[in-house]
Design goal:
Layout lengths: L12 E5 L2 E7 L4 E7 L2 E4 L1 E2 L2 E2 L5 E7 H7 L1 E12 L4 E3 L3 E6 L9 E6 L7 H7 L8 E5 L9 H4 L1 H10 L4 E5 L13 H4 L9 E5 L2 E6 L18 H14 L11 E6 L22 H15 L3 E4 L5 E4 L13 E9 L3 E10 L2 E8 L4 E8 L1
Length: 372
């Protein structure tokens, strides 16, 4: 883990969003930082003003540029005082990172982790299963149990750093627990988004991803939220985004088409964890429409889901696939207490995904094939 003079919390995370990367660097102190790729510099700025007062430095870089050079450098120096007419800083430091873009067309190794709920060490076992052959890490929500503290906000980046060391792409999606706590309203600046939106597409090599965000898992008026929730309108806006996916040039022509959603919306959540009441069965009209739109325009071959704290492959013809999305659904993470965890390691081939459920000791508990 990077800890250059106590300034960095972790190595950078190269987050894939749309057709670019957001290089996220969690920092302990106020710094001026920039990224350099092939001699071109990129800054984290607010309309030209370089940002120093943040716990996550974020840099938007063209994916084609980083894919070509396969290396990037970060330069940073601590700010001691930032006054109107003078700035006091420390000495500039630099770190260089190799980068491996996703260029494979088969035998693509993906690690899927969600619902770690504060664990950091245990998910590493699953994340290190493929070793240097890992091509993509997916962190699919609820990595922390809330975002009350900044240490919880940056946990996804620390897990990504442990596993990828800043050297391979990562896709990060929001979960419902990420929306709880005083920092939730700041996540559009702290987690990867597409121009502030937490739902977006991703193009990586021969894979097109649709990343959706269901928001919270109960109605906005639920007493637990105390009037802070406005997810119904958010989901209506997202419906229009999903509808627009069919208009993206070349997006539907990729060899593989996958959906990522922390809450797997094709599953109607009527009776979770044996509860007698069902406050989680919400937005049936909207989720029915999402599923229909996804089937009609995107035609996914595989669905990465979490939320249920289960490791299971729900077949497309299963009764549990309530809304009948046209592909199998992976429930790909199972936290067990505070120290144990099972995630999913997926190898993508021409006509199928090979799924292995892997624990913190890299032991495989089950192996399943999803054909498409």
């Amino acid at each position: 883990m990077a800890n250059k003079n106590g300034i960095l919390y972790a190595d950078p995370t190269v987050c894939a969003v749309e057709d670019y990367y957001l290089i996220a660097v969690p920092v302990r102190k106020k710094v001026l930082m920039h990224v350099e790729i092939g001699g071109k510099r990129f800054f984290n700025h607010s309309n030209g003003v370089r940002v120093s007062d943040t716990c996550v430095q974020m840099f938007k870089v063209p994916s084609a540029l980083l894919n070509e050079h396969k290396e990037y450098k970060i330069y940073f120096k601590q700010i001691y005082k930032r006054l109107a007419y003078s700035v006091s800083t420390g000495e500039e430091q630099a770190l260089t990172y190799k980068f491996k873009p996703l260029e494979k067309t088969e035998n693509i190794n993906i690690c899927h982790i969600s619902d770690t709920h504060g664990q950091r060490k245990a998910p590493f076992g699953c994340g290190s299963f493929f070793g240097d052959d890992l091509d993509l890490l997916i962190l699919n929500g609820d990595i922390s149990s809330s975002t009350e503290r900044m240490s919880q906000v940056i946990l996804p980046y620390q897990i990504a750093s442990d596993i990828t060391k800043g050297e391979i792409p990562v896709i990060i999606s929001r979960g419902n627990h990420d929306l709880r706590g005083k920092n939730a309203e700041k996540l559009d600046k702290l987690l990867p988004t597409a121009n502030g939106k937490s739902y977006y597409t991703v193009s990586l090599g021969e894979i097109s991803f649709l990343v959706t965000d269901c928001g919270e898992d109960k109605v906005d008026e639920h007493r637990e939220y105390g009037g802070t929730a406005a997810y119904h309108g958010f989901r209506e806006e997202e419906t229009e985004f999903i509808r627009s996916v069919a208009e993206k040039d070349g997006f539907l022509n990729k060899k593989y088409r996958f959906v990522i959603s922390h809450i797997p919306f094709p599953i109607r959540n009527t009776n979770p964890w044996g509860s007698e009441k069902a406050p989680f069965d919400i937005e049936n009209d909207i989720y029915d429409e999402w599923t229909a739109l996804v089937n009609e325009s995107f035609k996914p071959q595989f669905f990465f889901g979490g939320h249920y704290h289960e490791i299971e492959l729900i077949r497309k013809d299963s009764e549990r696939n309530t809304r009948k999305v046209c592909c199998d659904i992976l429930l790909g993470s199972k936290p067990e207490g505070k120290t144990d965890f099972i995630g999913a390691c997926v190898t993508v081939n021409r006509n199928c995904c090979l799924i292995r459920f892997v624990d913190k000791n890299r032991k495989v508990s089950d192996e399943i094939v999803s054909k498409f």
